[in-house]
Please model this.
Amino acid sequence: MKALDSLRIFVATQRKGSLSAAARSLSLSPATISRRISALEEELGVKLVDRTSRNLKVTEAGQAFLERAEVVLEAMAEAQQAALDARQRPEGRLRVHSRTHIGLRVVAPLLPRFAQAYPDIRVEIELSEHPVNLVEQDFDIDIRTGKSADSGFVIKRLLSSDEVLVASPSLARAYARLRHPSELPQLRCLTYRREHEQTTWRYIDAAQGGQEQELAIQGVLSANNGELLRLAAIGGMGVALLSEATVRSDLRDGTLVRLLPDYRFAVRGFSNGIFAVFRHSRTLPLKVRAFVDFVADALKNEGA
Model:
C-alpha cells in the first residue's frame, strides 16, 4: 500500500496546488510531503514537479503520470467499496420520488418483492406531478419519464417505453376508420394538462421522411394525472396518449386497445423510456444500487 500512498500524496499536491495545502488535507507535514514526492521521482527516474516557483507546477511527465495515477486511485476506491459491499447488507432509509402514474402503475407492484429481498431497507416514496431537486429535497432517487439534462446526476434507463395511443374497445370500434394521426384533433381526446402550456401531441411520419409532426389537441377531458386519464380511457370517454408501461396489462387483457400502432407518438419528446436519476458518487450507496438494479431487472423480465 506504500506505493498507493505515494500516489495519493502526489495527486493531493496537484489538486490542492501547494505542499502546505496537501499536507493539511493529509495530516502530514510539508517536509514529509516533499520527501515522498522526491522519493517517487527517484523511483520513476523522472521529474514530476517543478519546485522553482512558489506554487508547484507539474512537468509534462508529471501530467502524464497524474492522469494515470488518478485512474489507479479511483479503481482502488471502487475495489475497496466492492470488498465492503460483499460483507454488508443494503440498509437504511431510501427516499424515492416518482411521477404519480409511473409510481402507481410501474413501481408500486414491485415493492412487495423488493421488501422481501431487502428487509433492512425502509422505503419512503413520494408521488407528485412536479420535478424535484434531489439534493435540496433529500431524495435518493427520482423516477422520470424523460432524461435529466443535469450532468451532475447519473441516469439509468429502467425500461424502454414509448407512449401509445389507447382507447376502450367500444371507442376503438367507433373510430375504426381512423387512418392517420392528423385526424386526431377531430376525435374525443383525453389530455395531460400542464400549467400555461397548450396541449400538443407529436408523432413521427414515415411517409414524410421520418419527420416529427405536431398536433394541437383540445381534449374533452384534461387532467394533471395519468392514472385518471387511464381510467377515463377504460370507461370509453376518449382517446388517451399514455406510457406503454403503464397500460401494458390493459392492452394484454383487452381492457384497452392500441390505435395507430404503426406511428410513434410522444407528448413532449421522444424520450423512449422510464429513467432512474440519482446523485453521482464514487461509492454509490448500497441501498440506491439495490433499488435501481432490482427495478431495472424486474421490468426487463416482465417485458421479455
